[in-house]
Automatic annotation (TrEMBL):
<dbReference type="InterPro" id="IPR001387">
    <property type="entry name" value="Cro/C1-type_HTH"/>
</dbReference>
<dbReference type="InterPro" id="IPR010982">
    <property type="entry name" value="Lambda_DNA-bd_dom_sf"/>
</dbReference>
<dbReference type="Pfam" id="PF13560">
    <property type="entry name" value="HTH_31"/>
</dbReference>
<dbReference type="GO" id="GO:0003677">
    <property type="term" value="F:DNA binding"/>
</dbReference>
<feature type="domain" description="HTH cro/C1-type">
    <location>
        <begin position="13"/>
        <end position="69"/>
    </location>
</feature>
<protein>
    <submittedName>
        <fullName>Helix-turn-helix transcriptional regulator</fullName>
    </submittedName>
</protein>
């Protein structure tokens, strides 16, 4: 599955987890979010929508674009920092 096949936030997060070979524990350590919250975000029947602070932690911790993670738009990875 490519990232373009993902339809919603939960799909994108599951794709990223599989693509990078991470466990939920890996993701918790990277994002500093509780395991239960990440499990809700990853759930197939996704009902939990993250708030902005959680989206920022996920984006920064997982090294992906906030725009891609939240909306599925743009490149997966964050653009290089400008100097």
């Amino acid at each position: 599955m490519s990232w373009t096949d993902t339809q919603n936030f939960s799909d994108r997060l599951r794709w990223l987890k599989a693509e990078r070979g991470w466990t939920i524990e890996d993701m918790c350590a990277r994002t500093e979010l509780p395991k239960g919250r990440l499990e809700r975000y990853l759930a197939q029947r996704h009902t939990a929508e993250p708030k902005l602070d959680a989206l920022v932690k996920l984006s920064n911790g997982l090294g992906v674009s906030l725009n891609w993670l939240a909306l599925g738009k743009g490149p997966v990875t964050m653009p290089a920092e400008r100097t």
